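Bench log. Compound arrived from synthesis this morning; before running ITC I wanted a structural hypothesis for how glutathione sits in the protein. Inputs:
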Amino acid sequence: MQRTHQCARRCQARIQRGCVRKRIRVVDDDRSQGLDRREEGVIRIYTYNPGWNVPCISPFVTKTVYYRRMAGIPHEIKRQDLSRLTLDAPYGKLPYIEDDGNKIADSTLIVEYLKRYRDLDADTTAAERAQMLAWNRLLDEHTYWCAVIQPRWREQANWEIYAPIIAGVEPVPLEVRQSLDQFRELILSEFLGQGMGRLPATVVYKRARADIDAISDFLGSKPFFMGDRLRSIDANVLSALNHISGTPFNFDTKDYVEGKKNLADYRARLNAHFEKP
Ligand SMILES: N[C@@H](CCC(=O)N[C@@H](CS)C(=O)NCC(=O)O)C(=O)O
């Protein structure tokens, strides 16, 4: 475990040195006005590079940015120094946030924390909260692996597209590419450990399609995922869909999402308000 962390840190340091930093756009200052957030400071969220139509190439980071945008909580986006990821991030992963000198990590914990400023779920019933919990678990612990990790990290053709996006530079310098390839091995070992990475791609995508069917069927013709009101789960659903559909990668589930009219309409509706790469 210690070796894995050291390896990740070395990879990230090399990625950083290899001129990635020069190409990083600095901040997306996403403050909102007139809200119940205290005035003395702004919450900082640490991110990887932005991509296509998403504020960050990580769906978990994107989820937390969307929650803030949806709740109108002032925040500032900071690009994480990758050479310091395992030092700065409480669990060695993104997202984490800083608020009043405290660090809060893990997208689920961050959304729960942010509810103290504005709770999009304040008047939900216990049954609705139970449903949202189950959907969050599906998106974070299942859909993420079969529709994000599988296409981007496991498939060579998509990896060739993804590596320059992570690096923020094209062509990717040799030293950076070597570091990224090592980092890919780390992610693929996590994929094997999780179990999904042991299944053939056809099975993985069959599961991803089942998730998409369930999401589409549950959404139906409702304006938001839970009904007439925007809820915290919309941040996660929109993030997941924007990390599958409209991406530069080519894979089974992407086309499948794009073929579902209610999902395309939902994305278009919510992206019109909350998309800001
Ligand atoms: N359960 C965490 C998962 C976060 C996560 O897996 N983040 C990925 C990016 S999508 C990461 O930083 N990976 C770096 C690594 O595995 O070393 C959350 O919800 O925030």
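What the model suggests: Confidence is low (pLDDT under 50) at residues 1-5, 11-39. Residues 2-114 form a domain with the Glutaredoxin fold (CATH 3.40.30.10).
ITC booked for Thursday regardless.
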